[in-house]
Amino acid sequence: MIPASWYLILSAVLFSLGVIGFLIKRSLITVFMSIELMLNAVNLSFVTFAHQWHSVKGQIFVFFVMMVAAAEAAVGLAIIIAIFRARATLNVDQVDLMKL
Amino acid sequence: MIFGLSIAFWITALFTVAGALAAALLKNLVHCALSLTVTFAGLAILFLQLDAQFAGFAQMLVYIGAVAILVVFAILLTRGAGAPEYRIYTSSWLAGIAIAAAVFALLAWSVITSLPAGAGSAAPDVTVLSIGQALMSTYVLPLEIVAVVLTVALIGAVIVAMHDKGDAKTHEQKGGAQ
Question: Membrane-spanning regions, if any (chain A) (predicted)?
Answer without folding.
Answer: 6-24, 31-54, 60-84
